[in-house]
Amino acid sequence: MQNIEPLIFDLVEWVAKARRSHAEVMTTWRTSCPRLTVWEDAVDRGLLVRKNSADGAIVEVTARGRKYLSSHARHPTAGA
Fold this sequence. Notes:
Blueprint: H1 5-17, E1 20-21, H2 22-28, H3 38-44, E2 48-53, E3 56-61, H4 63-71
Helix pairs in contact: 1-3, 1-4
């Protein structure tokens, strides 16, 4: 089984950086590999949520997702 934790982190971090439409998220994070369930896992864990807005469906980071980002923050390697 593949460790997709880094991909989940990348997805949540990417969504946190700017307002993202659901269509943009689905297009950008689309995969043809059924074993890579990054979007589904992030939603199932409560890290991301799809909401309806006046502009259409959007994806937002939840409070749990923000906590996840802060607790899994990447730290630069010394000398990098």
